[in-house]
Design a protein that fits this description.
Oligomer: single chain
Strand content: 15-25%
CATH class of the largest domain: Alpha Beta
Number of domains: 2
Structural class: alpha/beta
CATH superfamily of the largest domain: Alpha/Beta hydrolase fold, catalytic domain
CATH architecture of the largest domain: 3-Layer(aba) Sandwich
Order of helices and strands: HHHHHEEEHEHHEHHHEHEHEH
Radius of gyration: 19 Å
Number of strands: 8
Strand order of the largest sheet: 1-2-4-3-5-6-7-8
Largest sheet: 8 strands, mixed
Length: 346
């Protein structure tokens, strides 16, 4: 299909890719390639284009994301479950829109068996997109080999502002717990694996469970009364938390907060999650790379300090190099983080 000899122009001329690229990879990071280079092979772009943070262009990630997008659509073992619909047709696939119509779980059906624990993966994307390919599907491939039932959340982002993403995550947890018997998994052993802004989403939804329960159930009562009845009394709080190079509220410019809050920036303090950790926070594993050019490692260390102060069981890992957005971190100093995490939670 597409190779390193393909061009950005060829990718964008594919109607499916043009419509759905943001589902797996921020389209904005494809569109930063100048027009004059869009007919150059992908393999040449790292020598011609830099990422906004100064590193060579990530042509390999773009190519992998395109391949993953078609896999997401065509792999019969990945079922797409819409979360805001009371009923849906078989072989559902979300519309290329950023609304409740697109909110779904990508469920790896062959992993849902044997009363397994569940790993619910929450990719990042700065609350402007959802990076389902590298941070979602790559992680799913690894965690299913670790004995987890795995699912990836596609949630609403900008211009759907707070608490829309948090409601989507809370709804996903309710879906898994309510249907645990049918899904053949342990609904009382749910691990959230959140990356970057997805880490903030996982942490904020967990810490503000009462607020999320209230806003979600109000929305369901009005829009999906059958789901409202089914989900009453089902906890929205996960049992374990993994925060991967997370944004937790520490940033010089309100980029993530701007995408999450729009003009309502007076909520920044409320959503600086390391300021609101309490004793009910679940056991947490968190990690980051010291050379991360996008999200300062103080987001991780301040969260760890807050967990320690409140007596929450946690483990933090800081790796010397790897940068940001590296997912399972293959080929970097952080490559062993998944093993360390699963050992911590065992």
């Amino acid at each position: 299909m597409f190779t390193y000899d393909s061009t950005i122009q060829e990718l964008l001329e594919d109607a499916f890719i043009a419509d759905y690229l943001d589902l797996v990879f921020p389209k904005s990071l494809v569109e930063i390639v100048p027009e004059k280079y869009r007919n150059q092979p992908l393999r040449k772009l790292p020598d011609l284009v830099q990422m906004p943070w100064g590193t060579p262009y990530i042509a390999g990630a773009v190519l992998d994301s395109v391949k993953r997008l078609y896999e997401l659509k065509n792999d019969g073992q990945i079922e797409c479950v819409p979360l805001w619909k009371e009923r849906y047709v078989k072989d559902f696939f979300p519309e290329p829109v950023n609304s409740k119509e697109s909110v779904c779980l990508f469920v790896y059906r062959n992993t849902f068996r044997d009363n397994r624990p569940v790993a619910l993966i929450v990719p990042g994307g700065g609350y402007a997109a959802v990076s389902i390919a590298g941070e979602g599907m790559d992680t799913a491939d690894v965690l299913k080999e670790k004995g987890y039932a795995v699912a990836i959340l596609n949630y609403r982002c900008k211009p759907n502002y707070y608490p829309a993403p948090q409601e989507d995550l809370a709804l996903a947890i309710k879906y898994i717990r309510t249907n645990a018997g049918t899904l053949k998994v342990n609904g009382n052993d749910i691990l959230l694996v959140g990356y970057s802004a997805g880490g903030h989403l996982a942490a904020s939804e967990t810490l503000y469970e009462s607020e999320m329960e209230k806003t979600l159930m109000e929305a369901l009562k009005e829009e999906a009364p059958e789901l409202y009845k089914k989900y009453r009394g089902i906890s929205v709080k996960a049992n374990k938390l993994c925060l991967s190079y997370p944004f937790t509220g520490e940033e010089e410019e309100p980029v993530c907060f701007g995408n999450l809050l729009g003009s309502n920036l007076d909520l920044m303090e409320h959503l600086t999650v390391f300021l609101h950790v309490d004793e009910t926070c679940p056991k947490t594993f968190l990690w980051a790379c010291e050379d991360d050019p996008l999200v300062k490692t103080t987001n991780t260390t301040k969260m760890a300090d807050a967990l320690k102060e409140k007596g929450v069981s946690f483990e933090m890992r800081l790796y010397p190099s790897g940068g940001h957005g590296i997912g399972v971190a293959k080929g970097t100093s952080a490559e062993g983080w998944v093993d360390e995490m699963t050992e911590f939670f065992s």
